[in-house]
Amino acid sequence: MQQNPSLDLVEFVETQILPQYAQFDKAHNMEHVIRVIRRSLDLARKIGADLDMAYTIAAYHDLGLTGPRAIHHITSGKMLMQDARLKHWFSPEQLRMMKEAVEDHRASASRAPRSIYGKIVAEADRDIDPETVIRRTIQFGLSNYPEMDTEGHWKRFMQHMDEKYSVNGYIRLWIQGSENEHKLNELRRLITNSGEMRTVFDRIFKEENK
Q1: I want to staple 119 with a disulfide (CB 3.0 to 4.6 A). Which of 45, 88, 171, 174 is the partner?
Q2: pTM
Q3: Closest residue by Cα to residue 140 from 54, 204, 55, 74
Protein backbone atom coordinates (compact mmCIF):
# COMPACT_ATOMS: atom_id res chain seq x y z
CA MET A 1 0.00 0.00 0.00
CA GLN A 2 1.27 3.46 -0.93
CA GLN A 3 2.66 5.28 2.13
CA ASN A 4 3.75 8.56 0.56
CA PRO A 5 2.91 10.66 -2.52
CA SER A 6 4.93 10.03 -5.69
CA LEU A 7 8.37 11.61 -5.48
CA ASP A 8 8.17 13.34 -8.87
CA LEU A 9 4.77 14.81 -7.95
CA VAL A 10 6.15 16.09 -4.64
CA GLU A 11 9.11 17.68 -6.45
CA PHE A 12 6.77 19.43 -8.89
CA VAL A 13 4.45 20.73 -6.17
CA GLU A 14 7.25 21.87 -3.87
CA THR A 15 9.05 23.82 -6.60
CA GLN A 16 6.14 25.11 -8.74
CA ILE A 17 3.05 25.36 -6.51
CA LEU A 18 3.89 25.85 -2.83
CA PRO A 19 6.13 28.93 -3.34
CA GLN A 20 3.01 30.82 -4.49
CA TYR A 21 1.73 30.80 -0.89
CA ALA A 22 4.49 33.22 0.12
CA GLN A 23 2.39 36.10 -1.28
CA PHE A 24 -0.63 35.41 0.96
CA ASP A 25 -1.42 36.71 4.45
CA LYS A 26 -0.05 34.98 7.57
CA ALA A 27 -3.25 32.97 7.98
CA HIS A 28 -2.83 31.37 4.54
CA ASN A 29 0.93 31.23 4.07
CA MET A 30 3.39 28.40 3.51
CA GLU A 31 3.07 27.20 7.09
CA HIS A 32 -0.69 26.85 6.64
CA VAL A 33 -0.59 24.90 3.38
CA ILE A 34 2.09 22.53 4.69
CA ARG A 35 -0.08 21.85 7.74
CA VAL A 36 -3.10 21.14 5.50
CA ILE A 37 -1.00 18.80 3.36
CA ARG A 38 0.26 16.90 6.40
CA ARG A 39 -3.23 16.51 7.84
CA SER A 40 -4.68 15.51 4.47
CA LEU A 41 -2.10 12.76 4.08
CA ASP A 42 -2.72 11.50 7.63
CA LEU A 43 -6.47 11.29 6.97
CA ALA A 44 -5.97 9.73 3.53
CA ARG A 45 -3.78 7.00 5.02
CA LYS A 46 -6.38 6.21 7.70
CA ILE A 47 -9.21 6.08 5.17
CA GLY A 48 -7.30 4.35 2.39
CA ALA A 49 -7.66 7.20 -0.12
CA ASP A 50 -5.27 7.98 -2.98
CA LEU A 51 -2.31 9.87 -1.49
CA ASP A 52 -1.32 11.62 -4.72
CA MET A 53 -4.84 13.04 -5.08
CA ALA A 54 -5.11 14.09 -1.42
CA TYR A 55 -1.66 15.71 -1.55
CA THR A 56 -2.35 17.70 -4.71
CA ILE A 57 -5.80 18.86 -3.59
CA ALA A 58 -4.28 20.21 -0.37
CA ALA A 59 -1.48 21.94 -2.28
CA TYR A 60 -3.90 23.78 -4.60
CA HIS A 61 -6.74 24.46 -2.15
CA ASP A 62 -5.98 28.17 -1.48
CA LEU A 63 -4.21 29.23 -4.68
CA GLY A 64 -7.30 31.23 -5.67
CA LEU A 65 -6.47 33.80 -2.99
CA THR A 66 -4.68 35.62 -5.79
CA GLY A 67 -8.19 36.85 -6.65
CA PRO A 68 -11.32 37.75 -4.62
CA ARG A 69 -11.34 35.93 -1.29
CA ALA A 70 -15.08 35.23 -1.38
CA ILE A 71 -14.72 32.95 -4.41
CA HIS A 72 -11.18 31.71 -3.81
CA HIS A 73 -12.35 28.10 -3.53
CA ILE A 74 -13.90 28.28 -7.01
CA THR A 75 -10.83 29.99 -8.44
CA SER A 76 -8.54 27.43 -6.81
CA GLY A 77 -10.54 24.60 -8.39
CA LYS A 78 -10.25 26.21 -11.81
CA MET A 79 -6.51 26.66 -11.38
CA LEU A 80 -6.09 22.98 -10.57
CA MET A 81 -8.29 21.86 -13.48
CA GLN A 82 -6.52 24.14 -15.94
CA ASP A 83 -3.00 23.13 -14.93
CA ALA A 84 -2.11 20.85 -17.84
CA ARG A 85 1.03 19.64 -16.05
CA LEU A 86 -1.15 17.55 -13.71
CA LYS A 87 -2.22 15.33 -16.63
CA HIS A 88 1.12 13.58 -16.17
CA TRP A 89 -0.18 12.04 -12.92
CA PHE A 90 -3.98 12.10 -13.09
CA SER A 91 -6.81 11.05 -15.40
CA PRO A 92 -9.55 13.50 -16.48
CA GLU A 93 -11.95 11.87 -14.02
CA GLN A 94 -9.47 12.22 -11.15
CA LEU A 95 -8.87 15.87 -12.03
CA ARG A 96 -12.62 16.56 -12.05
CA MET A 97 -12.99 14.99 -8.61
CA MET A 98 -9.98 16.95 -7.33
CA LYS A 99 -11.42 20.22 -8.69
CA GLU A 100 -14.69 19.53 -6.86
CA ALA A 101 -12.80 18.71 -3.65
CA VAL A 102 -10.98 22.04 -3.78
CA GLU A 103 -14.29 23.84 -4.41
CA ASP A 104 -15.84 22.05 -1.42
CA HIS A 105 -13.15 22.83 1.15
CA ARG A 106 -14.62 26.09 2.51
CA ALA A 107 -15.85 26.03 6.11
CA SER A 108 -18.84 28.17 5.12
CA ALA A 109 -20.08 25.70 2.49
CA SER A 110 -23.80 25.02 2.92
CA ARG A 111 -23.59 21.38 1.82
CA ALA A 112 -21.38 18.41 2.47
CA PRO A 113 -18.36 17.86 0.19
CA ARG A 114 -19.19 15.72 -2.84
CA SER A 115 -16.49 13.10 -2.27
CA ILE A 116 -14.21 11.70 0.40
CA TYR A 117 -11.45 13.92 -1.03
CA GLY A 118 -13.51 17.03 -0.38
CA LYS A 119 -14.11 15.83 3.18
CA ILE A 120 -10.39 15.18 3.67
CA VAL A 121 -9.25 18.65 2.61
CA ALA A 122 -12.15 20.37 4.38
CA GLU A 123 -11.25 18.59 7.61
CA ALA A 124 -7.51 19.19 7.16
CA ASP A 125 -8.10 22.89 6.48
CA ARG A 126 -9.93 23.47 9.74
CA ASP A 127 -6.90 24.16 11.97
CA ILE A 128 -9.13 24.03 15.05
CA ASP A 129 -6.31 24.08 17.55
CA PRO A 130 -7.60 26.96 19.73
CA GLU A 131 -4.27 28.81 19.82
CA THR A 132 -3.93 28.51 16.04
CA VAL A 133 -7.50 29.64 15.35
CA ILE A 134 -7.17 32.65 17.63
CA ARG A 135 -3.81 33.65 16.16
CA ARG A 136 -4.95 33.29 12.56
CA THR A 137 -8.08 35.34 13.22
CA ILE A 138 -6.02 38.10 14.81
CA GLN A 139 -3.50 37.97 11.95
CA PHE A 140 -6.31 38.32 9.41
CA GLY A 141 -7.75 41.30 11.29
CA LEU A 142 -4.41 43.07 11.50
CA SER A 143 -3.72 42.48 7.79
CA ASN A 144 -7.15 43.57 6.53
CA TYR A 145 -8.30 46.18 9.07
CA PRO A 146 -5.15 48.12 10.05
CA GLU A 147 -7.23 51.19 10.91
CA MET A 148 -8.97 49.44 13.83
CA ASP A 149 -7.94 50.00 17.44
CA THR A 150 -7.57 47.15 19.92
CA GLU A 151 -11.24 47.21 20.96
CA GLY A 152 -12.32 47.17 17.33
CA HIS A 153 -10.19 44.12 16.68
CA TRP A 154 -11.60 42.43 19.80
CA LYS A 155 -15.19 43.00 18.69
CA ARG A 156 -14.47 41.77 15.15
CA PHE A 157 -12.62 38.78 16.57
CA MET A 158 -15.47 37.73 18.89
CA GLN A 159 -18.07 38.20 16.17
CA HIS A 160 -16.08 35.89 13.91
CA MET A 161 -15.64 33.35 16.72
CA ASP A 162 -19.38 33.31 17.35
CA GLU A 163 -20.41 33.15 13.69
CA LYS A 164 -17.99 30.37 12.77
CA TYR A 165 -16.96 28.30 15.80
CA SER A 166 -19.71 28.54 18.44
CA VAL A 167 -22.33 25.81 18.91
CA ASN A 168 -24.52 27.83 16.51
CA GLY A 169 -21.66 28.59 14.10
CA TYR A 170 -21.45 27.50 10.51
CA ILE A 171 -18.37 25.27 10.76
CA ARG A 172 -18.99 21.58 10.10
CA LEU A 173 -16.73 18.59 10.61
CA TRP A 174 -17.10 15.82 8.08
CA ILE A 175 -14.97 12.98 9.50
CA GLN A 176 -16.14 11.60 12.83
CA GLY A 177 -13.66 10.94 15.60
CA SER A 178 -11.10 13.35 14.19
CA GLU A 179 -8.68 15.32 16.33
CA ASN A 180 -10.65 18.42 15.38
CA GLU A 181 -13.72 17.31 17.34
CA HIS A 182 -11.87 17.55 20.65
CA LYS A 183 -10.23 20.85 19.71
CA LEU A 184 -13.52 22.39 18.62
CA ASN A 185 -15.08 21.53 21.97
CA GLU A 186 -12.21 23.30 23.77
CA LEU A 187 -12.56 26.36 21.52
CA ARG A 188 -16.30 26.49 22.19
CA ARG A 189 -15.61 26.43 25.91
CA LEU A 190 -13.36 29.47 25.49
CA ILE A 191 -15.97 31.29 23.41
CA THR A 192 -18.48 31.01 26.24
CA ASN A 193 -15.92 32.37 28.74
CA SER A 194 -15.22 35.87 27.44
CA GLY A 195 -12.89 36.73 30.33
CA GLU A 196 -10.57 33.81 29.66
CA MET A 197 -10.81 34.40 25.90
CA ARG A 198 -9.89 38.09 26.35
CA THR A 199 -6.76 37.10 28.27
CA VAL A 200 -5.67 34.82 25.42
CA PHE A 201 -6.62 37.44 22.82
CA ASP A 202 -4.60 40.18 24.54
CA ARG A 203 -1.50 37.99 24.76
CA ILE A 204 -1.57 36.94 21.11
CA PHE A 205 -2.63 40.38 19.85
CA LYS A 206 0.39 41.89 21.57
CA GLU A 207 2.69 39.26 20.02
CA GLU A 208 1.30 39.84 16.51
CA ASN A 209 1.03 43.64 16.71
CA LYS A 210 4.68 44.42 17.37
Answers
A1: 174
A2: 0.75
A3: 204
